[in-house]
Amino acid sequence: MDALVDSLLQQFQDSSSTASIVVSMADDNIDDMDLELEDELDLSSGGATTTTRQPETDEEKQLRIMDGYISALPFPAESPEDMREELNRIVSKMLIAAEGRHWDHLLAWTGAFNSLGSKRKLELHELTLPWARLWKFLELEMWPKKRMVMSNMSRNLHNVLLHLAEACCDYFAPSEIPNMLDTFLPLITKETASSMFTVLAAFLPASHAHTYLPFMFKSWEAFHSYKIEDSMISQFAALSVAHVAGTASEYGPEGSLPWKDVGIYSETEWDMIMRTCLASLSVPVGSSKGGSATAVHADRSNPSVFKKSGQRHAWLAQIIIYSMSVDGPVRPPVGEDGKPGSSTEKSFLAGSKALDSLDRRLLTFVHRLAAEFSTRWNDELLPSCKTPLPQRITVDIKRSFVQVLRTPVLLSMFAKDPIATSYAQAALKHLSILEPDLIMPQLLERAFSGLETVNETHRTTAAIGALAAVPSALTIRSVWLKGQKHLVSLLEMCLPGIDINDAIKTISTSLFITTALQFIKIGDLNVEGVVPLAHDAPGEDVVMKLEGAETPMMERIKKRQMSEEELEEDSLVKHSTAGFADWVVSFFRRVFALYENLPEEGGKSGKTGGKTEETVLKSLNAALDVVCANLSDKLFTLVLNLVYEYCTTNARSNSVRSIGNLVNSMARTRPKETISKFLPFTKHQIEIELAAGASSVRTTSNTAAALPSDTTFHWNLAVIRAALAYGGADLVEFKDDMLSLMTTLRKAKNERGYSGFGRLVNRTLATLTGTYPLEQRIVNPRQWKDPYFERSHHYSWGKQFSNPKDVEVQWHVPSAKEVEFAIEIFQKIITPAIVDLEALIKVPPTSRDGVWRNDFCRMMYLVRSAWSGASCLLIEGEKTGGDLCIDENYIAGITPSFKRPRAAFALPDPADPRYQTVKALKDRFGNLLHRSFLALTQEAEAKSEAADAVDASIQLVRALDIYLLDYGVSRDTIVALKRQFTMARDSVKTHPKQRSFPRMVWIKRAALYGYSRMYQHTNYRDRSALDDQLLIDLVELSLSPYTRVRKHAQSALLAASAYYRRAWRFVLPRIIEELKRETSKGKDADPDRQKGMFSLTPSFSNEF
C-alpha cells in the first residue's frame, strides 16, 4: 500500500497541465483534432509547412491549445493563472487524501482529476510499468478456482486485464522480455497454447522485438490453430506499424527492427504471412486450401479462455501496407482498363454468385488496405515523419496500388450484397482522394449508367451510394479538377431517387445530397449573366477584391498562373451552376410529393408510419438542412416563396410534422425572412380556426387521435412553431404579434393543441435566452457576404481550416431586449397560467371533474415547457437550508468541492433586478409543485375517480423533473452534440492525423466546448429546503399504485439524485424507513408501495 501511495504522490506532483482543464470541459473526442498537432505545423499560415522556428515548449503548446478553445467562446474565459490555480488545488487535495489514507475522498478527487485528463500520450522514457503484478492477477482470472466461478458465472475480468496489458505493453521495460518468456513459455501446453500466445502478444513490448520475433515464427509453424494465427498476425501488425521507420524509430537503434527483404521480414517469413492472408480470404489464386478451416476445428477441442474479437483483415492490411517500399522499377499493372487481368482472376470474378460469396471478405480486406495506405501516405507527408526516404511510399507506388485495387472495387459497386457494397464504397472514398484521375472517370461512367437504368433498382441505389462516398472528388478542385462540372448533372439524375415506395433509394439519395452540398455554396456563378470563355482569365475586380489568399487556387488566380485546362474547367463549372435554380425547384417539388404520400401520423409520439418512414424522413430532413443552409440569397428567396405557396394552399394531416421540419430548416438559415413571411398568415389562420372551434374537444392523453377538423389548426401551428424556433434578436421585432398569438393559443384544449403551444413557448424562450452558433457555412460571414465571392465561390468548395483561430464563429448572445422579452413572456403568459393552477389546486377533491383535469394538465404543460426552454436564463446562486447529510466520513477541507467554469448564462449576476424577478418566479413554480402534489395526494386519498388523475400526476412528475434537472445543459444534449460533432468530423476524415477540417466541424467543436462548460454547472449541485421537499415528494410518487406514475417518478428521482450533492444519502434512509413500515403491516401491506421501494433500493444501494 505504501508503494501505491508513493506512486500516486509522484504522479500527482508531476501532473500540472493547464490545457487539460480546458479540454476536460469539452469531450475526449475533441482534443485529438489539435492536441497531437505536430510542432512543425505552421498554424499561422493555415498549412503544414516546414518552419525554422524553435520547437514549442510544453507550456507554450498547452497555452496554444487552450487559446484555440477559449478564443472561440463568445464570453471571456478564465485566465491561464486561474486554471493553473484550480488544477493545483485539486492536486493538493489528492495529495492530502492520499497521505491521510482517506480513500473515499481520494477516489472522489481522482474522479475530478481524471475528468481533466487529455489524450496526450506519455513518451516511452516518461513511464515504466511493472508487468509481473498484472500477470499474477491475470493468471488467477484465466484459471480461477471453482468456487470463484460458481459465485459469479459472468466473470469477465480476464478479458479486461488482457485489454489493460495490451494498452500498457509499450511501457513494460524491454529488459524484462527474457523474464516474460521464462514465465510464459513453460505454461504453453496443448490445452493452453491458444490462450498463452494471446498473452504473449499482449505483454511483449514492441521495443527490442528482435529478441523474440524468430521464436514467434517458429512457434507459428509448430502449432495449427486459428486463434494462435490471430495472435501472431496481430503482433506482427503492431510491429510493422511501430518499426516502419526501421532503425530511425522511436525505440532507438538498439530497440528497433532493421528492414530486411520485405519490411522487417525475411523472404521466408513474408511467404508465411502471405499464405495465411490468401487462406484467410479463401481466394483460389495461389493459396493452400483448407488450412484455416482445419485450424478452426482444432481450436474447438482446446478453446481459448479469452473472447477477443478478431480483426484479421485489418491486421493483414497493416502488415502489407507498412512493409511497402521501392524494391525495383515500376512494373506495368494489369487491367489498365479496370478489368481483371489473369485468366484465373477472370474466371473467379466472372459470375455474380462467386462475386457475392467473395465480396464481404475480399472487400473488407480491400477497404482496410485503402484506409491503411491513406494513413501511411499522409503520415509520410508530415515534416515530423521519421521514416527514411528510401523506405517511404512513392508516387509511383501510390499509383500502382490504386490501379491494383481499382478492379475489385469497381466490379463490386453493383454487388447485390449491401454490406459488400458498403465496403466497396468505403474503399472508393480513399482511392478517389489518392488517385482521382484513375478512379473517378470509370466511377462516373458506371454511375451515369446506373442512374439511367430503370429496370434494375439496385444498380441505381448502388450508384447513388458510390457517389455519396466520393464528395471530395466531386466538389474540391485540389482533389480532382474535373469533378465540379459533373455535380449538377448528377444531382439532377438522382432526384427520381426520392421515392416513398423505395426507402433505401431515398435514404441513399438524401445522403448523396447531404455529402455533396454540405461544403459548397448553392448558387449561379454567372451572377451578371455573362459566362467567360475558356481562354478568359478571371476579371481584375475578382482578382483584386476576392478574399482569397485562403486557398492555393485563389493564390494562383492572383498570380495569373491558371493553365488552359483550369480555365476550360472554370468555364464548364460556371455553365453547370446555371442549373442549380432548376434543380432546387425540382428537389423541393419532389419533397412535397413525398410528403403527400406519407402514411397518417399516429401513436404515442405522433410518428409518421413505422421505423422505415421515420428513417426516410430523418435522412431527408438532414438533406433539407444542408440545402437551405447553403443557398445563395436569390435561391433562398425562390425557395421561400415556393414553400410559402405550398404551406398556404395545403393542410394535410399526414405531413404536419414533416412540413414543420421543412420550415425549421429555412428558419435556421434566415430566421427574419422566414418569420416575416409566415407569421401574419399563420397567426390569422390560427385565430380563425380557434374561433371556429378547433382544438375545443378536451383530451389529456397523447394517444388520442387528432380530429380531422383540427388539421388546418395543427398544420399552421406546426409551421409557425418551426418559423419561430430560431432568430433570437429577430424575434423582438415581432414581439407584439407573438404575445397576441400566445394569448390566443391558450384557448387550445386538445392535448395536441396545448402541447404544440407549450413547445412553441419552449422554443421561443430557448432561442431568446440561449447562446449558440448562428450559422455553419463553408466560409466566414464576411467572405460569404462579399459580392465577389458570389462569382467565384467554387474556389472555396470544400475549404478546410487547420487553425481554429482562423474560424470566425458567429454566436447568438442574448441581448438586453431579448432578456426583457423573455421576462415579459413569463409575466404575461406563464404567470396567468400559474395563477390558474393555484386556483385549481384549491378546488376540493370531490369537485374535480374532467374539465378540472384538462385545465390542470394544459396549464402545467405550459408552465413546465417555459421553464425547460429557459434553462440557460439564470445561474444558480448559493443555496441554503438543505440537509447536508454530514456523517462520520465528512472531513472539512478535503471533501470534494469544485469551482464552476464560466458559462453563457443570460443572467449571471444575482444582484441584477431582472435576475431577482426570474428567481422569484421560479421559486413560485417550485412551491406550486409541492402544493400540487399535496392536492393530488388528497384526491387519491378521497378515492374520487383517482384513476382519471393519472395524466395529471404524470404532468406533475415531469414538471418536478424539469424544475430539479433542467438547468444549464442536460446530459442528453451533450451526448447529441457529441454525436453530431463526431459524425461531422468522421465524414470528412480520411486519416487519423488529419488536422484540417471544414469550418462546420470547428464550429461544432466550439459549440460542444461551450455547452460542456455549462454542463459542469449541472453536476454536484447544492440543495435548498425546497429541493429537499420536492425530492421527498418524488419518493412518495415513486410508490404510487399506478405503474405509469411510479415509473416516471422513479426515473426522475434517480436522475435528480445523481446531480445533487449527497441527494442519495438524503433519500435512501426515507425509502428504507418506509419499507420497514410497510413490512411491519404484514398481510395488510400495500403491494404497489412495496414494488416501488424494492425498485428504488438496489439503485440507491449501488451508490454505496
Structural notes for this entry:
The protein is mostly helical and 1104 residues long. It contains 48 helices and six strands. A hairpin with a 4-residue loop joins β1 (601-602) and β2 (607-608). α20 runs parallel beside α22 (457-468). Residues 1-5, 11-29, 35-52, 286-291, 336-355 and 528-550 have low confidence and may be disordered.
List keywords for this structure.
1104 residues, mainly alpha, two-stranded antiparallel ribbon, two-stranded antiparallel sheet, 48 helices, 60% helix, 1% strand
Q: Flag low-confidence runs.
A: 1-5, 11-29, 35-52, 286-291, 336-355, 528-550
Biggest sheet record: 2 strands, antiparallel
Structural class call reads mainly alpha
Radius of gyration: 33 Å
Number of strand segments: 6
The helical percent reads 55-70%
Please, what is the average pLDDT? 83
Number of helices: 48
Shape annotation: globular
Bin the strand percentage: under 5%
The largest beta-sheet arranges its strands as 1-2
Q: Give the termini distance in whole angstroms.
A: 23 Å
Could you write a compact summary of the structure shown?
With about 1100 residues, the protein is an all-alpha fold. Mean pLDDT is about 85; it is low at about 1-5, about 10-30, about 35-50, about 285-290, about 335-355 and about 530-550.
Q: What's the topology here?
A:
Elements: H1 2-14, H2 19-24, H3 58-70, H4 80-99, H5 103-115, H6 132-142, H7 146-151, H8 157-168, H9 177-184, H10 193-203, H11 213-222, H12 226-242, H13 252-255, H14 267-281, H15 291-301, H16 312-321, H17 343-348, H18 352-379, H19 395-411, H20 418-434, H21 436-452, H22 457-468, H23 471-475, H24 487-494, H25 503-517, H26 540-545, H27 552-558, H28 564-577, H29 580-596, E1 601-602, E2 607-608, H30 611-629, H31 633-649, H32 656-669, H33 671-691, H34 711-723, H35 729-732, H36 735-745, H37 751-769, E3 772-773, H38 781-785, E4 800-801, E5 811-812, H39 816-840, H40 850-869, H41 913-942, H42 950-965, H43 971-988, E6 997-998, H44 999-1015, H45 1025-1037, H46 1043-1059, H47 1063-1079, H48 1087-1101
Antiparallel strand pairs: 1-2, 3-5, 4-6
Helix pairs in contact: 1-4, 4-5, 6-8, 8-10, 10-12, 12-16, 16-18, 18-19, 18-20, 19-20, 19-21, 20-21, 20-22, 21-22, 22-25, 25-30, 29-31, 30-32, 32-33, 32-34, 33-34, 33-36, 34-37, 36-39, 37-39, 37-40, 39-40, 39-41, 40-42, 41-42, 41-45, 42-45, 42-46, 43-44, 45-46, 45-47, 46-48, 47-48
